[in-house]
Design a protein that fits this description.
The complex is a heterodimer.
Chain A (H helix, E strand, L loop, with lengths): L1 H12 L21 H25 L3 H4 L12 H10 L5 H32 L5 H12 L7 H11 L5 H5 L6 H14 L2 H9 L4 H12 L1 H17 L2 H7 L7 H8 L7 H31 L6
Helix pairs in contact in A: 2-15, 4-15, 5-9, 5-12, 5-14, 6-9, 12-15, 14-15
Chain B lengths: L24 H19 L1 H28 L17 H7 L2 H32 L6 H7 L2 H4 L2 H11 L6 H8 L14 H28 L4 H7 L6 H12 L1 H15 L4 H6 L17 H11 L3 H31 L3
Helix pairs in contact in B: 2-15, 3-15, 4-9, 4-12, 9-12, 12-15, 14-15
Classes of the chains: A mainly alpha, B mainly alpha.
């Protein structure tokens, strides 16, 4: 800590005003980026995008293009052919997978937004006995990795008779501790107490306050949480694999892993399927990128 | 905490004003009804609002985690229900002598080290690149999130082709820079190569995400801290290590804990890197089989759920211990330097 302390002390002393012009110690965020910064950042983005681009290249190629040195880096013209093969394959159910992924992600997202904003509102603006302890519990469960209970979850779902159905995938995702935490923070910071109280004066019930005052105020946060939840649910693999594999009712991720198993994997097919399942998320990133960035920077955690 | 405890009077709770003054029966009843509704709303509504979260989380989140402990003490074989129900600590005893478990533990830690350390260091560098006055600022930030939104299943399949032995791009690139060696590297033949391949996937996925977390913290450092540092003549690199990193230490610790929790549960990458993914063996001789993968194999391929539950508990403990150690280490390294 001593380095920080020295710096802090120096900062408190403050630079003498007349010397200010000679100082070079501007904060980095006030320093204009140089050529090197742009070059390095552009390289980073290229490296980030390349696997996606290459996925498209293979998805559009024939088998020969894959067995070539140097490797093909230009898209071919067989995307529709490959895709057609994926959709018409027996025992893979890729089309059903896409529909199921959309169903599961939409249901989970809607539920998380509704239930987590309700609970977040209660924790932020309502007084009730035990609210501090209950909130502490929510925060503690933030860090507990749910995957570790996966064996018991499978048994629970078995008792309910839900294994192999979409219910088994949807139910555990319906609420998240992170959602409650995030909503509470946002409501605390954006909804003024006076507004809630004056609505109360006018005789508004709790639900009316939620509906007329809280909901309109938290739209940006709903967008952020919704995008993060949708992306996380769409990409989820381990639990859907356990409960849905072997059924004719997989999610798209399980369907892709089915494409990729067997003695002889045909990568142009696998990656054509993978590409199709990636496109919705790329669209979300383009449309809602600003919100996703904000959500993560406001302290999001891995979902 | 805010409150609505200084609650306004419920409508009509005090002496009724106009029409109710003479206390006609119907009016009275209406008032008590509203009164009750109000009391219910103030007293119980908050619990109703939080109930869905606690109910659903309790049933599908917390209960399985605890019930897992019970399962681990049982013989829960899907293929052989004739065994006595209680196993005592047999599953845990078996664990200690299970070569597969120790091998998976070794692999998990190896891949974890190869992925988390470069991941967080590179994220720091990317964050400090982003922490400048940039044109089109938002688009740079969105751009580095491409890996974050890409489905792991999809990217793992791409990397699986990238790291193939015969026509893989990795070998071709290594050959270009003269590191190809005599024969093309077989990325699925031994621990070293497969760990590097898998760690590459993890790094690719999470560098941008962690960079954004660091960037958020960097932008909240008070500006005068940097102004003062110029007096000592600190360049950008020294500035990063001497000022920025110590100042964002809490977030560094946070990311270390996150990547520990995530890294020790690695599943999708090792699963799909395998050419025979369904077997869940992590290579012909378990070269890159991780614990999460072994749990899946024991539970759903060997159908021994009791043993898989015991392994989950072991992994839980390991994660707790390692996350604790890493927190201490990071505190030392990022805060106590001088």
């Amino acid at each position: 800590m001593s380095a920080v302390d020295t710096v802090r002390r120096a900062a408190d002393a403050g630079p003498p005003g007349r010397n200010r012009a000679r100082l070079t110690g501007r904060a980095p965020q006030d320093t204009a980026a140089g050529v090197w910064t742009y070059l390095l950042l552009a390289t980073t983005i290229l490296l980030s995008a390349f696997p996606l681009y290459w996925m498209f290249v293979i998805a559009t190629s024939n088998d020969e293009a894959l067995a070539k040195i140097p490797p093909a880096v230009v898209p071919g013209d067989r995307f529709m052919t490959n895709l057609d093969e994926v959709f018409s394959l027996q025992d893979v159910y890729f089309a059903a997978g896409l529909v199921n992924s959309a169903l599961v992600s939409t249901a989970v997202t809607a539920s998380v937004l509704f239930f987590c904003s309700l609970a977040g509102f209660a924790f932020a603006k309502l007084r009730f006995k035990g609210s501090r302890w209950l909130m502490l519990f929510v925060v503690l469960t933030l860090t507990v990795p749910n995957q570790l209970g996966i064996v018991a979850l499978y048994i629970v779902m078995g008792k309910l008779g839900w294994n192999g159905t979409l219910l088994a995938v949807i139910a555990p995702g319906l609420v998240t501790a992170f959602g409650v935490f995030y909503m509470r923070q946002f409501i605390l910071n954006t909804v003024p107490d006076e507004l809630v109280e004056s609505a109360r004066m006018d005789g508004a019930t709790t639900m009316r306050v939620y509906w007329n005052i809280v909901l309109p105020a938290i739209r940006p946060a709903l967008a952020v949480l919704g995008l993060l939840t949708f992306v996380g649910t769409w990409n989820d693999f381990q639990w859907p694999l356990i409960t849905l594999s072997g059924t004719d009712f997989p999610t798209s991720m399980v369907a892709i892993s089915d494409l990729a198993s067997g003695n002889y994997v045909i990568y142009r097919r696998v990656l054509a399927g993978a590409f199709v399942a990636t496109v919705p998320l790329l669209i979300m990133l383009v449309v809602g990128g600003r919100q996703i960035v904000r959500g993560i920077m406001e302290g999001a955690v891995k979902s | 905490m805010s409150s609505t405890r200084a609650a306004p009077a419920p409508p009509g709770r005090r002496t009724p004003r106009k029409r109710g003054a003479d206390g006609s029966g119907a009016d009275q009843r209406r008032l008590t009804w509203r009164n009750r509704l109000y009391r219910f709303d103030m007293r119980y509504m908050p619990y109703l609002l939080i109930a869905p979260f606690f109910l659903i989380f309790g049933v599908f989140g917390l209960f399985p985690l605890i019930f897992n402990g019970v399962v681990s003490l049982r013989n829960y074989r899907l293929d052989d229900p004739t065994l006595p129900p209680w196993a005592g600590f047999d599953n845990f005893a078996k664990l200690l002598g299970d070569e597969d478990f120790w091998n998976a533990l070794y692999n998990t830690f190896g891949i974890f080290l190869l992925s988390s350390v470069p991941q967080l260091l590179l994220a720091l560098v990317v964050a400090s690149l982003l922490n400048r006055k940039l044109r089109a600022q938002t688009w740079w930030r969105v751009g580095i999130l491409l890996p974050y939104v890409t489905p792991l299943v999809a990217s793992t399949m791409v990397f699986s082709v990238f790291f193939s032995r015969d026509f893989g791009m990795a070998n071709w690139l290594l050959g270009l820079v003269g590191l190809g060696g005599d024969a093309p590297a077989d990325w699925r033949a031994d621990k070293f190569h497969s760990w590097i391949a898998i760690a590459t996937m993890v790094n690719w996925k999470w560098i941008g995400y962690n960079a954004l977390l660091y960037l958020a913290a960097m932008q909240s450092i008070p500006r005068d801290v940097y102004e003062a540092s110029a007096i000592d003549g600190a360049g950008p690199w020294r500035q990063l290590w001497r000022i920025t990193v110590p100042m964002i230490q809490p977030v560094v610790v946070f990311t270390v804990v996150l990547s520990t929790i995530g890294g020790l549960q690695l599943f999708t990458e090792p699963m799909l890197f395998d050419l025979n993914a369904q077997a869940a063996t992590g290579g012909p001789n378990g070269e890159w089989q991780t614990i999460a993968q072994l749990i899946y194999k024991v539970g759903w391929k060997d159908l021994d759920l009791g043993y898989a539950a015991a392994m989950s508990w072991a992994l839980f403990l390991i994660i707790l211990v390692v996350a604790g150690i890493n927190t201490l280490l990071t505190n030392r390294l990022s805060g106590g330097r001088q």
